[in-house]
Amino acid sequence: MRVEDSKLxxxxxxxxxxxxxxxxxxxxxxxxxxxxxxxxxxxRHESIPELLALLDRNQIPYKFLGGGxxxxxxxxxxxxxxxxxxxxxxxxxxxxxxxxxxxxxxLGRTVTxxxxxxxxxxxxxxxVPGTVGGALRMNAGAYGMQIGSYxxxxxxxxxxxxxxxxxxxxxxxxxxxxxxxxxxxxxxAVTLELPSKLFKEVLQGIRICNEKRRSSQxxxxxxxxxxxxxxxxxxxxxxxxxxxxxxxxxGDARVSDRHANFFVNAGQASAKDMLTLIADVRRRVENAFxxxxxxxxxxxxx
Length: 302
Ligand code: EPU
Prior knowledge:
Helix content: 25-40%
Distance between the termini: 11 Å
Structural class: alpha+beta
Strand order of the largest sheet: 6-7-14-10-11
Radius of gyration: 20 Å
Number of strands: 19
Bound molecules: uridine-diphosphate-2(N-acetylglucosaminyl) butyric acid
């Protein structure tokens, strides 16, 4: 979808919005898959209520992109524009045990920045691609920890109220890869309260997690992390592996040889290829184990 109206483009410029016309979403997603649309970059959080009202008045549908690391976007010309926060400077401010982090900040860099200030707790998230906002929305976790445990406060655009609000951590429920945020809420910033830990100790934890991840996940390949959530008490990766499905392909979409719950784009996979592979694996797991796997990856099909 294209923003062509010159009056609207001028109004967007007044709000500090930068328009990148005809952006291929394959360049903004870790899967390297996705069609083309206009990308609007937001430089000031405070412009968001006015921006969305303007888009609604002009009947322009939109979606809000984080780091694009847990996302499968459809092929071709997309029927909505994409909004994304530009990174502010600085992205992180430390105040004692509190880290005030912009939602656009890179998650891995946030973990190491906090470590350098002798703050730990998030070692498990090292190597998880994406932004802090995306991690927050999904309650990203690994190696026994989840980001939700450290959330003291969240600044977000509340779609239902059409305004920016601050929520305390206790007002939000964080479950396994799920939060109580509404689907159209936009994460803007978070304050994390982290335990004091010496840099060298955090670094040791980071090294261990990095090593575990390197040995079990296809890190150098284009993927969206785990495709399915683990069903209660079971492992989606193990079930897919037990069925001998590693290497199963549709076009260039392929079940990873290293970890069966990672599906990789081994070349020029389309969204259609990937969705066909996901549906096929899901059906086979259901037939064999009677378990309906739930998507972990977010799908924006055109
Ligand atoms: N397994 C296999 N074959 C495979 C993959 C796994 O037999 O191909 C077995 C493993 O040997 C292990 C069990 O399944 O006994 C669990 O595997 P793993 O330790 O790799 O963890 P996981 O449950 O598959 C979860 C998260 C990952 C996270 C790791 C580490 C989900 C869906 N996945 O994977 O998160 O990195 O634990 O904590 O919860 C993600 O969310 O995108 C993600 C990658």
